[in-house]
UniProtKB/TrEMBL annotation, chains A, B:
Domain Nicotinate/nicotinamide phosphoribosyltransferase: residue ranges: 151-332
EC number, UniProt record: 6.3.4.21
Protein name: Nicotinate phosphoribosyltransferase
Similarity comment: family membership: Belongs to the NAPRTase family.
Any one GO CC term of the record: cytosol
SUPFAM superfamilies the record matches: Nicotinate/Quinolinate PRTase C-terminal domain-like (SSF51690), Nicotinate/Quinolinate PRTase N-terminal domain-like (SSF54675)
CDD domains linked: NAPRTase_A (cd01570)
Gene3D superfamilies reported in the protein's UniProt record: Aldolase class I (3.20.20.70), nicotinate phosphoribosyltransferase (3.20.140.10)
Organism (species): Methylocystis echinoides
Function according to Swiss-Prot or TrEMBL: Catalyzes the first step in the biosynthesis of NAD from nicotinic acid, the ATP-dependent synthesis of beta-nicotinate D-ribonucleotide from nicotinate and 5-phospho-D-ribose 1-phosphate.
NCBIfam families, sorted: NAPRTase_put, PRK09243.1-3, PRK12484.1
């Protein structure tokens, strides 16, 4: 089961609304903004990701003949609409924060300016693409800050929510500063470094554990990582000490071992001691097995000799916060600002810009969300990325995006770098924005 | 970004292990079983799903020329292995619980019997496919039991983890008893009923809310559902009462309204009262907006006049438990039972069967996990589904699977139907299974 690349990957109501708009000629310019309403309790900031996939989606947006035929056969839509749909393309403008930019609630990270039916039709998949990678990059950024330069590898494909999720999580975590992934196809598609060790089943398939190690070492002498915890971790470490001279004689050296269960702090210490005594000082120790923020922090704080982490489920499902409360909302139509006032979900009208200010130490100190044309001090975070349906600049490399993330994370205020969500960050709403919101409400009351 | 259908959608270590196996001629018959180790705290049972996608994956398992060329160019593998890989197909046997079967921890829901390299190579994607749909079907089953026959519709594509996740969540929730989905492509691919209403942006795009309602009604007179909470829910309900005679004159009737924010219990009551007084007794009230178990239970318990639920994020991310602690483990190789004893992750050896016993009331009362050949009273839950790489029976319809789920849920013991995880369920390990485990340990100690 793989997800076909189809414009039908959307909510039915988008098509129903598009039909109603087109029937009435409601093709005025609409402005929609994508933003996160509030942070999950365990996040102090978010890291924008997914823009490249969003741009690719918009550039190629089209209903195939086959899609149109199926819609016709469904009986849900009129022929006139389907004819219009067949030739519909996305021809709008897009402004966005580059991937790898830190952001906060109520700050739009993407703005679409397009004829209303186009801007509406792309909503569902656009959210789907921006939400997920932003979710995972934001989670991965926590691990990157916690790991303090220890190696981080994504092991999460098996429990990711489908195939796309595994691939996009590999990309998003690499953007945030992970060193690589175990997912082969992600390595291929995105040119992300690949890491692979061995599984318990390999050890189990042999009658003798040392024999399994030797067989694997012979087959994969380079970047050799052996798994120690199938039966008894310390006993396995001692077997490696015994085995090493035979491997060395054949020019094979063990790069690292992986511990996947038990008390990882205690075991890393005892394995380190066994290795150091046995002349295996160069063999690194990697930890895996249900690791998340708390376990990683405990290992780092303990000073235990763990050189890297393999992280699966907690990363690729963002397990403590598997969704962000995000939205894509109409803020202007046909030249007039719009807002909704649904209880607890009010939005602010107009085309917005986010301005970021930095202190004398180079760290971010406050953001201002204002109307686009307001003159506000600070660095503008939203940049034009598409005009009339076309990408404005060539795609950045993942290396460029990683560098931006790294700088973004380095410039976070210290309490947020320490991953303390309680610290908060000052986001101000520019004066003219609140005035506009009041004016929109007054106009609606007068109607 | 869509997930290409490639055998490279796997972990690197699977390929490394396969190379080592093939280099040594380790092609004996391996038995792997997929099971869940423990229930999340908020689940009392699980519902098996994803088998059809798993079978389709195994039946078509192959590395394309393009995959092989890329692997060769990566320099990570030898030419002899890549040649073997190019012709490798899955030719094993599979036993499984049918989709829509309730199951519990330590009960295998799928068993693969195949030459070791094949059984190993398919691990990652097999887990990825079985885990996610089982996760979502199990979550959806809670909603189905809670909703007590109110309509349930999946609205979750936008915050699902990628495109596959949205499609497969629509399928898994429909299996569990949801009435349908908003995801058009899921409707097309799986023949699931589609539901669509309207968004706030539609209302916002018009200067007047009533004008927006009328425009939408004219465009989509059938199955008309209007969204009431863009500005003021009760005011919108009164506007509909005023509008109704004009719509009726044109033969248009409102089927339902949707409330998406605020105090849904209080608002459903006041909207119901406005409608009943205004002659709109037939108009149903649907609730949506961040609903999960607790909100759904509160609405149902309140007796509030809510006729159906649109559920998004909580369903498609299984938000309270976004992953299951599941595994695919080697239990036999080359005729000898195997187990791992990693701390906290011990497995039981041998080919297993799950036997289910029912009480005089027709409800399930206990399961026994035994070795396949043990004579145990009860209904065997694992059935042969593939032989020598080929599917044994034509795929069941989703209707068949839904019927099985419905029966499964109806036969749950009452405390589990009441969604009380504390109640537990009795799963016994058959005597010969524990004896075998002890014997495997003894044999290993003797080695």
């Amino acid at each position: 089961m793989n997800c076909p690349d189809s414009a039908l990957l959307t909510d039915l109501y988008q098509l129903k609304m598009a039909e109603a708009y087109l029937a009435r000629g409601e093709q005025g310019t609409a402005v929609f903004e994508f933003f996160v309403r509030r942070l999950p309790p365990t996040r102090g900031f978010l890291l924008a990701a997914g823009l490249e996939q969003a741009i690719a989606f918009l550039e190629s947006y089209a209903f195939s003949r086959d899609d149109i035929d199926w819609l016709a056969s469904s009986g849900m839509f009129g022929a006139a609409f389907l004819e219009q749909l067949a030739s519909l393309r996305f021809a709008g403008d897009v402004h966005a924060m580059p991937e790898g930019t830190v952001f906060f609630p109520d700050e739009p990270i993407l703005r679409v300016t397009a004829p209303l039916p186009q801007a509406q039709l792309v909503e569902t998949r656009l959210i789907n693409l921006l939400h997920f990678q932003t979710l995972i990059a934001s989670k991965a950024a926590r691990h990157v800050l916690l790991a303090q330069n220890r190696q981080l590898v994504d092991f999460g494909l098996r429990r990711a929510h489908g195939g796309d999720a595994g691939l996009l999580a590999a990309r998003a975590s690499y953007i945030a500063g992970y060193d690589g992934t175990a997912t082969v196809l992600a390595g291929r598609l995105f040119d992300i470094p690949l890491f692979g060790t061995m599984a318990h089943s390999f050890v189990q398939a042999f009658d003798d554990e040392a024999e399994a190690f030797e067989a694997f070492a012979e087959s994969h002498p380079e970047d050799l990582v052996l798994l120690l915890d199938t039966y008894d971790t310390e006993a396995a470490a001692r077997k490696l000490v015994t085995l090493t001279p035979r491997l060395r004689a054949r020019g094979i050296s063990i790069k690292a071992v992986r511990l996947d269960s038990g008390d990882l702090i205690a075991l890393s210490r005892s394995v380190r001691a066994i290795f150091d005594e046995g002349g295996l000082r160069d063999v690194a120790i990697l930890a895996s097995g249900g690791l998340d923020d708390a376990e990683m922090r405990a290992i780092v704080d303990s000073g235990g000799p763990v050189d890297g982490f393999g992280v699966g489920t907690s990363l690729t499902t963002s397990i403590d916060a598997p969704a962000l409360d995000c939205a894509y909302k109409l803020t202007e139509y046909a030249g007039r600002p719009r807002r909704k006032r649904s209880i607890g979900k009010e939005t602010l009208p107009g085309r917005k810009q986010v301005w970021r200010r930095f202190g004398p130490d180079g760290r971010m100190c406050a953001d201002v969300v204002s109307l686009e044309d307001d003159a506000v001090a600070g660095e503008a975070q939203l940049q034009p990325v598409m005009r009339a349906g076309k990408r404005l600049l060539p795609p950045p490399t993942l290396g460029d995006i990683r560098a931006r993330s790294k700088e973004s994370l380095a410039r976070l205020p210290e309490p947020l770098r320490a991953l303390d969500p309680a610290a908060g960050y000052h986001v101000e709403r520019g004066g003219s924005l609140l005035t506009l919101a009041r004016n929109v409400d007054r106009r609606r009351r007068e109607v």
